[in-house]
Amino acid sequence: MKFQKFAGVMAAVAFMTFAAVDRAVAQSATYSLNSTAVSAFSPGPYGSVTLTQSFSDVLVSVALRSDLNFVNTGSHSIFSFNLGGVSSASDITGITFANGLGGSFNVASGTSNPPFGTFSYAINCSSDCAHGGSGGGYVDPLNFKVKNATVSEFGQLSTGSGTAAYFAADVINLKGNTGAIGATVSAVPEPDTYAMLLAGLGLIGFTARRRWLSK
């Protein structure tokens, strides 16, 4: 009987712990920009995309490897992503880069970013754009905000022809080679999520042992 009670306590606390972890994951997530068809970029990863929930908004920050900058060339977009829910292009605001280059930016819907297929939204430059060359592109991080969204709404793969990805970016390296990089793997929990998991597991053992010994 004691063992059954002990097992019941373990199961209940475990459920609460992993429910808490699920909520933490929903508040922040990081995707690795791990894929490209440009051999000149050498092996990845090439950067990361971090999503952070801020009340009803999601803050997006895209960091690149030190030898890469953002550009807007040919049929590629500076940055492409997928988003479900009811968000619209007008909800995507505050587009900035670290080097503060001039230029105007717009957000388009349903655009492709070869070879990573078609995405819900894409950030493009509309005037005074950096296409590489002597300009060198836009220095990371790229930051922007999506209003009326949740982190979980970004977890969708691109569609159409090409390699399915959660995100894609147009970049240039120090030698002037340009092309797209993409995130083809799902999000990983932030470090604070792992800390919460460990704390929860410790609570499982402590609480269950205390109740079991008191019977």
Q: Can you count the beta strands?
A: 12
Determine the N-to-C terminus distance: 10 Å
Order of helices and strands: HEEEEEEEEEEEEH
Query: Whole-number radius of gyration?
Result: 21 Å
Helix content: 10-25%
Instruction: Report strand %.
Output: 25-35%
Largest sheet: 7 strands, antiparallel
Mean pLDDT: 81
Structural class: alpha+beta
Morphology call: globular
Count of DSSP H/I helices? 2
The low-pLDDT segments are 9-25, 193-198
Structure description:
The chain is of the alpha+beta class and about 220 residues long. It has helices at about 1-25, 190-215, and strands spanning about 30-35, 35, 45-55, 55-65, 70, 80, 90-95, 105-110, 120-125, 140-145, 165-175, 180-185. The strands form two sheets. Strands 2, 5, 6, 8, 9, 11 and 12 form a seven-stranded antiparallel β-sheet that branches. It has a five-stranded antiparallel β-sheet with strand order 1-3-4-10-7. Helix 1 (about 1-25) packs antiparallel against helix 2. The longest helix has 26 residues, at about 1-25. The radius of gyration is 21 Å and the shape is globular. Mean pLDDT is about 80; it is low at about 10-25 and about 195-200.
